[in-house]
Structures are given as C-alpha cells and as structure tokens.
Design goal:
Chain lengths: 241, 241
DNA sequence: CGTCTGGTTGATCTAGATCAACAGGAGTGG
DNA sequence: CCACTCCTGTTGATCTAGATCAACCAGACG
C-alpha cells in the first residue's frame, strides 16, 4: 500500500485545542509551542495506513479531523476492526511509551488530518513538563475505563442493542438531516467491519440489520442508513450506564 | 463489617521491592525513603475490606502478601468478583488519580499485609519525582493490555478452558505438593465467585467442574482441588498468547 | 425446629456460531 | 465481449454453549 504523505497548511496546536476537545489542555504555553514546532501535520486518504501492526513506534499521533480504524491482525492472518478513532483522540501512545512495536494498524476510514509528534520531541517534553506524563496517565486511565465499559456492554447487551448503539454514535458524529426530515448516516465501514466492531459473525450482522429494518427503526441501503423516526430509534437505544 | 487495622512490624520498602516484583523499581533512593516514612503497613484478615465501592480514594495500596479480590456492586445489589490481586500489585491508584470515589471494593481473601500511602505523600512524590508519574503510567498501560487480553480470552475461550486457566494461575501462586506427589490447590474463593471470575452462571460452574472431574484432570472437594496428573492437566491448558 | 445460603442436578430455551449455498458486482485475462 | 474468478453480502438449515428456571439438598444458624 503506497503511503502518500503531504505536509498541509499547518494548523496551530492552539487552534486545534480550542476546536476539538483534545487532551493536551494541561500543557503550558511554552510546551505547546514545542509541540507546535515539532509536530508534522499529515493528510491521509481512505485506505492508507497511519502505521502498521509490527512497525516501530516512533511517536504519537493526534487525529485532527476524519476517522481512523484500529485493526488487529491475528496469527491466522485475519484482520479485525477493533475500534474507531475520532478527532481529538491520540493514538500510538501506548506502544510508544512501552517502547514496543505497534500492536495494531491504524487505517484511514475517512479523509483525515493527523498530527505526528516524533520521539525526540515527546521525550524532551516528558522531561521538561512533568504534567505531560500525568496527562498521558489520565488518557490511559480513560482508555482503561472505556475498555472495561465496552467489555461489560459486550456481555450484557445483545447484538441488536450493540448495533443500534454504534449506529447512534456514528449518527452523532456524521449524521445529517435531509430536507424532508429524514436522518442519514453514511457508514464509513463495511458490514464485515461492522460485525467485527460489535463482535459477531457477519451472518449475524445481516440478520440483525434485517430485524432492525423489520421493526421500522432504520433502513439500510448499501452504506447509507436512513432513520425516518429518530424518536422511535432512540427509544430502542440501551439506557446509558 | 468491622475493620481491624493494626500496625505491624514495618517492612522497609527496600526489602519489599527486592522480594516481590513490585513496580516501584524506578524510584530513586530518596523517593523510596519518602514512601518508606509515609507508608503504613496494615494487616487484614479474610472478609475485611481494604476499601469499599463509593469510598473516597485517599491514597494507594500496595499489597505485600496475601490475596485480595476486587468486587463490584451493580445497581441491583449483586456483587461480582471481577479480579484477583496478588502480592506486588498496587490497587486504588486509578480512583485516586482520577480523584473519584472507588469504583469497586477490595476484599481480603487471604490474610494479607497491605501498605498504604496516603494522599499527601503521593502528591508530594508526584511533584518531586516525575518518574513516578511515568511509573503509574506504565502500570496503567499494563492494566490496559491485561484487560484487553482478558476480554479476548473471554470471547475465544470456553468456560472449561477459562476455569483450567484460572486453576493453573492459582496453582502457580498457592499450589502445594503432597508427599505422595499429588498437587493441591486450596481455593481462596467460593464457587459463586469462581463463576463470576470466569464470567458464567454458577450452574455452569458446577457442570464444568463435573466435566473436568470426569476427564480426570482434577478432583474437587469443597475448596480443595487435587491434581494427580499435572502433565495431563497442563496439556489441557490453553496455549499462551 | 424453620429459615437461609451455597451448591448441585435436571429440563428447557435461545442467541448466536457454523456450515453451506448462492447472488451480485468488480476485476482480469483471453 | 464473454468466461472466469474473487470478494462481499445475503439467506437458509443446523448445532451448541451456556443461560434460565425450577427443584432439591446439606450445612449453618437463629
């Protein structure tokens, strides 16, 4: 896969911080300036990979816009989509901090702008600004609770519920409303990947979609999902917490 | 539940570090001394709780010897054993660092010695020794990979495999060998809790034990497990990784 | 004694996996 | 252009691990 990097118009970290809810709010102005100078803003197109499983981790990546999917390749060569990464989130930091090769690949799912901060800059920042370690720490703690939550959901919710939940998340991020009041989601991933994401077999995914259509909650046409009655849809969502 | 605290003979952190594989190896001598002076060594008996879900997190706990179980109480009042904590591990740090009440209870399962380091000491250490934040960080990262691994296991392994796996872990920690060459495990938890731990219904736990006995892998008598043929037993263990 | 709690057994149910067939594109190569 | 293979997705039939429901038993404990 040919990776096409391109230095774009460099958005300042300051702008990025204010627009998205990134997790670098703790940093002092001067530290931010260091990052600002050290970072490289990269533009990717769908299908490209930010990094590959097994690659050496040379730094951290903060996604500014677009959508990324984390995939893991198992020993049999099956690739599974394990998580979606939205703007504001930082990836690659775990492998980097552990000084281990990346344990999964980051694949671009929608046109994305990603800021890369290289090893030396991060190292320097970690030395000069102790707050950064704490910030990474709280990031990791958040990931941990998140993972636990997702685990709980996967045992207590059934396939349909999990699918509806993911659809809702995607709707919140990418949903649009047509002039006739219908709500649209353009799915950024294949059925296969969707199945991986909720942890079912692809056949089950198909049937679950059928059930959802049968109940009039949404209509699926290729990768576009149409929700005519958003209230009805929401009433079938799992209750938070 | 009456909590009985008791200041024991204070083992030095230095000794503790060398004997168990604790995660505080990064600290400088002087930092360790600070902890050494600030920590309180506490002795608990089975049934007592180190902290309760909902309690304010006032510091961190490093388990020196014994065994602790983390329990979570859901909204319906059911308590589920979610994890075992062995000597050398540190608990309570997540809630403490997030400045949130403890999200689960820590129940003593075997007579334990636990070192408590209070809020102010940790705060001071975090300020003076930036390496500590990194150490917490790597702890949290380890917890994260661990959680992900356990999640994978819970979907890919079936009940019998998971039970055998846990038995093996317990054997490694607490297993003994009789003079007639039989291997013994004294289970520190009830069937109920064992079922929670591997994520099944108690009925399934019973039946799984029956299957295991039927295959001659082990014999269960109350809380003691007898393994006569350890090789056979190990051949049925899931392959690592 | 009754009552309770933890564990075992049996019977039944079900979500979802698995296996197999097939349909529609999208290439690819002749 | 057609024939061929791939690849993704859909459908149908069957299978199974484990949950659930219910009864029961034994020890603990008032």
């Amino acid at each position: 896969m040919s990776v096409m990097l391109q230095k774009t118009h460099q958005t300042s970290c300051f702008d990025c911080l204010s627009s998205s809810s990134s997790e670098w709010g703790c940093l002092t102005k001067s530290s931010l300036c260091v990052i600002d100078r050290a970072k490289v803003s990269l533009t990717y197109s769908p299908g490209e990979n930010v990094f590959n499983q097994g690659d050496e981790a040379n730094g951290i990546y903060c996604i500014q816009s677009g959508l990324i999917g984390l995939r893991r390749l198992d020993q049999d060569g099956n690739s599974t989509l394990i998580r979606l990464i939205h703007p504001g989130e930082t990836i690659g930091y775990r492998s980097f901090l552990k000084n281990m090769p990346h344990c999964n690949s980051a694949e671009i799912l929608m046109p994305s702008v990603v800021c890369f901060v290289g090893r030396s800059a991060v190292r320097k920042l970690l030395e000069t600004s102790p707050a950064l370690a704490l910030e990474f720490l709280s990031h990791s703690l958040r990931d941990l609770t998140q993972t636990e939550k997702r685990y709980m959901e996967s045992v207590t919710w059934k396939a349909k519920t999990r699918l509806l939940h993911i659809l809702f998340v995607l709707y919140e991020k990418f949903g649009t409303e047509t002039q006739c009041g219908e709500h649209l989601i353009e799915l950024p991933i294949s059925r296969q990947d969707l199945a991986d994401l909720i942890g079912t077999a692809p056949e089950t995914m198909s049937r679950t979609i059928q059930r959802i259509e049968g109940e009039g909650l949404a209509r699926f046409d290729g990768r576009t999902v149409r929700i005519s009655n958003l209230n009805l849809f929401c009433r079938h969502l799992p209750h938070p917490q």
